[in-house]
Design a protein that fits this description.
This is L-rhamnose mutarotase. It is a single chain. The chain has about 110 residues and is α+β, with helices and mostly antiparallel strands. It has a single domain, classed as Alpha-Beta Plaits. Strands 2-3-1-4 form a 4-stranded antiparallel β-sheet, with no helix packed on it. Strand 2 and strand 3 form a beta hairpin. The longest helix is centred in the last third of the chain and has 10 residues. The two termini are about 20 Å apart.
């Protein structure tokens, strides 16, 4: 499994509403994420709107494409659009390169 970390920027004036909506994600959206290969998916939100996402997946590009093909994702992205400036959030993720992993280095040291 590949570890993926990405960032987005939520409009600071909309942070509380963003948190509220993510406390009750639609069940069909949760199922679509699971079914399209998103595992151990978490979002972290800083007070200035920096959003950091983390997930495990076999193939991130395939997982993105599979989600893009679902009807529920189109509805979710339309509903979430006001929280982000510019393009849809699922097309604006800035993937961060991994530079350190404790388990991998411990494994190599053995």
């Amino acid at each position: 499994m590949r570890r993926v970390c990405f960032t987005l920027q939520v409009r600071p004036e909309m942070l509380e509403e963003y948190r509220r909506r993510h406390a009750e994600v639609w069940p069909e959206m949760l199922a679509a994420l699971r079914d399209t290969g998103w595992h151990d998916y978490s979002l972290f939100l800083r007070d200035d709107g920096l959003l950091v996402g983390y997930l495990l997946t076999e193939d991130f590009d395939a997982a993105l494409a599979a989600m893009d093909a679902t009807e529920v994702n189109a509805r979710w992205q339309a509903d979430m659009a006001p929280f982000f400036a510019g393009r849809r959030a699922d097309r604006s993720m800035r993937v961060l390169p991994e530079v350190f992993n404790l388990d991998e280095q411990l494994g190599e040291a053995r």
